[in-house]
Design brief:
Eight copies of one chain form a homooctamer. By secondary structure, chain A is of the alpha/beta class. Helix content of chain A is 35%, strand content 20%. Chain A has a five-stranded parallel β-sheet with strand order 6-5-7-8-9. In chain A, strand 1, helix 1 and strand 2 form a beta-alpha-beta unit. In chain A, helix 1 packs across helix 2. The longest helix of chain A has 13 residues. Chains in contact: A-B, A-C, A-D, A-F, B-C, B-F, B-G, C-D, C-E, D-E, D-H, E-G, E-H, F-G, F-H, G-H. At the A-B interface, strand 9 and helix 8 of A face strand 9 and helix 8 of B. The structure holds adenosine monophosphate (4 copies) and magnesium ion (MG) (8 copies). One magnesium ion binds next to loops of chain G.
C-alpha cells in the first residue's frame, strides 16, 4: 500500500554499513528516507553517500529528503512531561514532521504540576490529533483526554526504575485510561504513534 | 468536553435499579443514553421507565434515543474473525452506530483463512478508519494493516484458554504489530475502540 | 503495642458464627470492635449478641462501640473518582472515623474531568493527610500530590478489566508516581490506608 | 506547591554537563539543591561551578546548601538490615537530613537475627516516623511495625538474585505486610521514602 | 521406593465415588490410607466402606489405619501465625502424625507480634525439624530460622488478596529468605512439607 | 538413542578452548560435529585443530564433516519475515541442511505484506514440513498454516522491544495460533525447530 | 486447504442449540463432524438431530461419522502420567483416532516412577510420532524424548495448584526441554497435538 | 544461633577490599571463613592477608580454614546434569564439604539420557540427603525423587534462554514436582542448598 510517506529503516541492531547500503538503495530510487533509532555512527555512514542527510540527535533520526516536504493545515500536538521522555517525544515529533505534518510540541507539562498543563488548554484544543508521551505512572493521556475532543495516541515510555518494569506501569495505565478516545502503541514507540497520527491528520486535509 | 455523543453508563457491577435510575435521570435531561455491558435484566429495568429503550443482545448494549440519529458519510469498518469475538465486535459496531457513524461489518475473516480476507480488499480500502477485533494470536490488525492506508484501532479479546492468559497474547501481539498505523485499546474494549474511531471518522465530515 | 484503636476482625473467609464469637469476646473485654470485609450475614450474627452493633453497607464494616468516640482536630481527606471505587473509599473513610479521626470525603473527582478536581483545591489543601483511592490508571494520587503539601496514602483498587489485571495497573502507576510524598498500600486495602493515615494524623493532635 | 525543601535533580540518565548546568541555575536562584543517583563524575562537574557542593558517596547524593539548615525536634528513624541495603538506606537518611529532619540510623538489624533488633526497641519507639529498608524477603517493616506505634514507610530494595526478580519479592512482601501502619514506595526509592517521612515528621513540629 | 508410609489419595478433582473406590482397594491390600484435600462428601463416601475412617476437618484429611501407628522420639514442630493459615498448617501437622511422627503445634505466633514468638524460643529449639507456614509477607520462616539450628521446611499459603497474587508474595519471600537452612515447597502444600519433614525426622530415629 | 545426526555442541557460555577440545574429541571418534551459537572466536579455535571446519556466520554455526552428506527427497521449507529474524532462520536452515535435509528458504514474507507471501503459495505447498520463524506479533505461522496442509514448527524470536518482552509476544501468539497443525519451540531455538523438522522429514524418505 | 479431516466445532462457550445447529449443517453437507470441549448437554442437543452421534465423556468429544473411517499403518503413541491428565490425553487420543490414525495409549507412566516408563521402552520406540501429556513439572516429554527417535508433540496440562499457575510450570518446562525433537502446543490443547501428530503420521502412509 | 559452621561472606557486589577486610576480621577471631560468589580478584585480595586461603574456581568459593575439618559418616549426594549447571553444583558441593560433610558428586546424569542416571541408582540410595541441581526443565529432582527414600533439596539454575526466564522454568517445575520429599531453594542458590542439606545430614551423626 503506497501511502506517500518516506521509506523507513529501523537502525537498531543493524551495522552502520548495513544502514548506509539500505539508505543509498532507497535514495537512488527517489524515495525520501527516514532512519529511526539511529546512532551518530549510523548517521556518519549514511552521510558518506547521501550528502543531504540530516541527523536529529535527540530523536535519534536520520532524514534524507529527495522531494519537497509539504505541510498539513491540521496540526498534530506532541505533548510530554519530563526531560527523560524527550527522546521518545522527539522521535514522534520529527517523524510526524518528516511525514509532512505540521507539528506543535508542548513539553514539560507533567501531571504532577497540573497548572502548567491547564494553562495550555486552548492550544491543546486546537490540535486535530494529539500524541501524548508519558513514562512512570503514564497519567498524562488521561488528563489531556479529559480536556480535548480529538483522538489521542498514547505512547508509554520505559523511563523509570523498580516497579516501573521497563515501561509496563505506563503501558498498563494507558490501556486502562478512564478517558475515552485514547489508543496506545508499544512502549517507546514514538515512530508508530507518529505514523498513526499522520494517517488520522490527513483525513482532514 | 462536550463531543455531541450519547451519555454512557458502564453497567457491569451496577444493579438493574442503579442503571434504571441513572438512565432515567440522563434521559430526562434530553440526552441520548448508551448502556454498555448490559444484561437483559439491566435492560428490563430501564425499559420500565424509558419506553423507547432498545436492547442489542450480542453487543450487550442498551440504547435510548432522545434525538434523531445522523449518519456520517465516511464509513467505519468493523473487521473480526471468529464467532467468539462477535460480542466485542458488536459492542464496537453498535457503539459506533449509536454515535452517528455509518458502520460496515466484515466478519468471519480470520487470518487462518487468508483468502476470504483477500476477497474483501476493495471494501477494506473504502473505509475511513477500521476497528479490528481479534483474540488468540491477535494477528488480524497486522494483516489488514498491510492491505489498507487508513488508521486501525485494534481490540484484543479475552477469547481463548491456556497461554492466552485472558487476552494477554492478543494484546501483546497487537502492541508489537509490524504494520504501522495500528493503535490498541484494552482487552475486550469494543466501546473504547468505537469512541476513538468515531473521533477519527468525524475529522473527515 | 497498644495504640488506642478498636480491635479489628478481618471477616472475609470467616463464617458468621466465627465472627460473632470473636466479636463477642472482644466486646466483653471492653474493646471497641471493627469488622472489615463484613457481609450482611456477618453483621446479623454479630447483632444477635451485640445490640449496639452498626453496619456500614457500602464500606462493608461492622462497628461496635464500647467507648465514647473522640474526634481529631486535624482532618483526613478521602479522595476518590468514580462510583466503582466507593466501597474501598468508604472502607477507608469509615475506618478512619471509627479510629477517632475527623474525615472529609471528596468523591467524583476523577482525573478525566480535571476541572471538578481543580475546584476543590482549597479544600484539598486543608487536610493534614490525604487518602487517595483510584482504580484503572491510578493517576489521582499523582495529580492530587502536585496540588497539596501533605502526605498522601494511595490505595489502588481492583476495579477494571482486561489489562487492569485485578488492580495491577493502578498499583504500578501509584508506585511510580512522579509526585513525591505518595506512599502506597495493597490493592483494595482501604483499611490499611486509614490506619496509616490515622497514625499520621494524630501526630498533630 | 512550595514545601520549603531543596530543589531536586534526578541525575541518573543525565550527563555531568546537564547536571552541572541545572544545578548552577537552581543555585543561582538561591535554592538549596539536592542531586540523587549522582555518580562521582556528576559531582565533579557540579563542584566546578558550586564550590560548596558536598558529595555523599554511599548515598550517591550531591548537596548544595544556599541556606542554613534547620533540624526538627521529632526524629526520623532509618532502619535497615544488611550492608547491601545501605546505599538505599543512606539515600533515605541523607535526603531526610537535607530536608531539615533530625535522623537516627539503626542499621544491621536484619530479621534473621531478631535479638539485635529487639535490643533496639526503646529507641525504635522514640521515633515519630520510621523509614524501613529491606531487600530479599522484605520482612523488616512487618516486624518493626509490630513493635512501634508510629507510621512506617517501607522501601523494598532490588538486592538479591533469582526469585528476587529485582526487588519484586520485597515489594510484594511489604504490600502484604500483616502489620498495620506500613505504606510502601517504589523499589530502591530511598528519596521518595524520605520525602514522605519528612512531610509526616513536620506535622509534629 | 517403599518408605513405610500410608498410601496417599489426592482427593481434589476426584468424585466421592472415585475416592471411595481407590481407598477401598488400598485398604483391602492392608495399607494405611491418607486422603488429602478431602471434602466431607469424600469422607462420607469412604466411611461407607471403611468403618474406621476418620476425618480431620480443618486439615481436610481422611485417614484409614490398617496398622498400629508408631511415634518418633524426635519432634516435628509445626509453626504458624494467623487462623487463616490453619488449614494448611493442619494438613501438615496431621499428615506428619499419620506418617508416624511426634508433632508439636505452635500457632498464633505471627511476626507482627514478635514477643509471642520470642516466648517460644526454648520450645522451638527442641525440635528436630520445623515446618513453618505463613501467608501474606511470608516472613515467619526467616525469623524462626534465625532462632533455631534445625532445618526448616517453609510453606507459603495463598491467604491474602491484591498484590498477594494467590500466594506469590509469600512464596517469593521464602525463596529469598535471608536465614539459611530454609527450603520451600509449593503454595498451600502442607502435605509435601510434612513428607519432607518426615523423611528428615526419621534420620535421627 | 542414535539418530544418525551430527554430535552437537551448544557453544554459548563455553570458552573457545572448551569448544575446541570437545569438538576435537568428537571429530576424532569419527562423528560429524555441529556447534551452535558459535562466535567467530569459537570457530577460530576449532579451525586450529580441524582443518575442514566451516563457519556459517549469520547462523552462528560451526560444522565439521567427517562423513559424506546425504540429501532428503522431501524438502523442509524455512519461512521468515524480516532481516532481524535471519540469524534464527539461518540457525534452523543450516542445522537442517547439516542433518541431511534438502532445505528451501523463503524469506522476506512478513504478514504485513501479505501479497508477497501469497505469491509463494505453490512453493509453500510443496514442502513436507515447514519451519516458520517470526518475531514481534508472531503471526506468520498462523497465516502459513492456513495455506498449507503439512506440519509447521513455529519459532518465536526475541526480536523487538517494549511489550515484546524478549519474545514473549511472539511465543504466546504462536501457542494460541488459530491454525491447526502448528507446534512451537523455545524463543530463538532455530536448532530445536530444525531437529524436530528433520525427524518429521525423514518419515517420508 | 482441504486435508480430508472432519469439520471441527469448539463447543466451549457455545450453547447446546448453537452446537446442534452448526453440527446439523455440517453433517448435511456430508462431512464428518468432531465437537471438542463438549458437555453432555451439547451432546444431547446434537443427538436430537444426528442419530449416529457418539459421545466420548472423558475426552469431552462428540463425533458424527458420515464416512467410513480408515486407519493408518503408522501408530501415534499417546503417553501420559496421572489420572488427572486423562481428559487432555483422551482429547488427543480420540481426536487422532477420529482423524483416521491408529492410536496406542500408554498411561500411568509418570516420571516419579521411572521404572514403569522404562518397561515400555520397546513400545515407545515402535511409534511414528508421540503425543506426550504432562502437568505439574511437565518432565515426561524430556524423559521420553531421550528414549525414542521419533518426533514428540508435548501438551502441558493445567492440572496442579499454587506455583503451577494454571499450567505455566509445565508449559515452560516443555519449551525448555533438554531433549531435542520436542515441540509444544498450548496448555490443555489435546486437540491441537492430535492434529499436528496426524499431519506427521500421514507423511509415512 | 551458633551452629559450628564457618562464617560466610557473600562476595557479589562487594569490592575486593571490602571482602579482604571482612575476611581478615573474621579470621582473626579464630573463625573458619567461607566466601561465596567470589571472583579471582576477591581471592587475590584475601590471599594478601590470609596465607592459607584457598580458591575453588568453578564453585567461585574462597575458603580460609582456622580449624581442623571433620567429615561426617553420612554422605550428601550432589547430583547434576549438564556442564552448564556445574558452577551451582560445585557451589553446593564445596560449601557442604567446608561445613564438614562427606560429599559425593554424581554429574552428567541429565533426564534426557535416563540410562546413565539409572546406572547410579544404588549409589543414589546410599546417600542420607541429596542436593539435586537442574536448569531448563528442572526435571532431575522429580526423577531422582522417585528412585530414593531420602530428603532432596532441589536447586533450579538460571541456565537457559528464551522461555527459561532466568531460571523460572526450573523453579516452577521443582515447586510442582510430583515426587514427594523434594523442597526447593532459590535459583542458583547452591550455598543455601548445602546449608539445608548439612543441617539434615548432621541429624544422623
Ligand atoms: N465497555 C466499556 N469499556 C470501558 N469503558 C467504558 C465502557 N463503557 C463505558 N465506559 C466508560 O465508562 C464511563 C461511564 O462509567 P460509569 O460512570 O461508571 O457508568 C463512560 O463515560 C465511558 O468512558
Ligand atoms: N531517587 C529518586 N527516585 C525517584 N524520584 C526521584 C528521585 N530523586 C528525585 N526524584 C524526583 O525527580 C524529580 C526531579 O527529576 P528531574 O527533573 O528529571 O531531575 C524530583 O522533583 C523528584 O520528584
Ligand atoms: N495435598 C497435596 N499436595 C500435593 N501433592 C499431594 C497432596 N496430597 C497428595 N499428593 C501427592 O499426590 C499423590 C496421589 O495422587 P493421586 O494418585 O492423583 O491421588 C501422592 O502420592 C502424593 O505424592
Ligand atoms: N541452539 C540451541 N538451542 C537449544 N538447544 C541446543 C542448541 N544447540 C544445541 N542444543 C542442545 O544442547 C546439547 C548440547 O549441549 P552441550 O552438551 O552443553 O554442548 C545438544 O545435544 C542439543 O540438544
Ligand atoms: Mg508521567
Ligand atoms: Mg485471531
Ligand atoms: Mg482512576
Ligand atoms: Mg531482609
Ligand atoms: Mg505472615
Ligand atoms: Mg512478524
Ligand atoms: Mg508430570
Ligand atoms: Mg535439566
Amino acid at each position: 500500500v503506497r501511502r506517500g510517506y518516506p521509506e523507513v529503516i529501523y537502525c537498531e541492531g543493524k551495522t552502520p554499513e548495513q544502514v548506509r547500503e539500505i539508505a543509498a538503495r532507497m535514495y537512488e530510487k527517489g524515495s525520501d528516507v527516514l532512519g529511526t533509532r539511529a546512532s551518530l555512527d549510523h548517521f556518519k555512514a549514511v552521510k558518506e553517500v547521501c550528502d543531504n542527510a540530516v541527523y536529529y540527535d535527540v530523536a535519534r533520526i536520520i532524514s534524507i529528503r529527495a522531494n519537497e516536504a509539504k505541510k498539513t493545515k491540521g496540526v498534530i500536538g506532541v505533548v510530554a512531561a519530563g526531560t527523560s521522555d524527550l527522546p521518545v517525544a522527539e522521535e514522534a515529533a520529527v517523524t510526524a514532521e518528516l511525514m509532512g505534518n505540521t507539528v506543535k510540541r508542548i513539553y514539560d507539562v507533567g501531571v504532577a504540576g497540573i497548572h502548567r498543563l491547564m494553562s495550555k488548554v486552548d492550544e491543546l484544543r486546537s490540535f486535530r490529533v494529539i500524541i501524548c508521551i508519558a513514562g512512570m505512572e503514564g497519567a498524562l493521556p488521561t488528563v489531556v483526554g479529559g480536556l480535548v475532543a480529538c483522538p489521542i495516541i498514547a505512547v508509554p515510555t520505559s523511563v523509570g526504575y523498580g516497579a516501573n518494569f521497563h515501561g509496563l506501569s505506563a503501558l498498563l495505565a494507558m490501556l486502562n485510561s478512564c478517558s475515552s478516545g485514547v489508543s496506545v502503541v508499544n512502549i517507546d514507540n514514538g515512530f508508530g504513534a507518529a505514523y498513526s497520527a499522520s494517517l488520522i491528520n490527513r483525513i482532514g486535509e
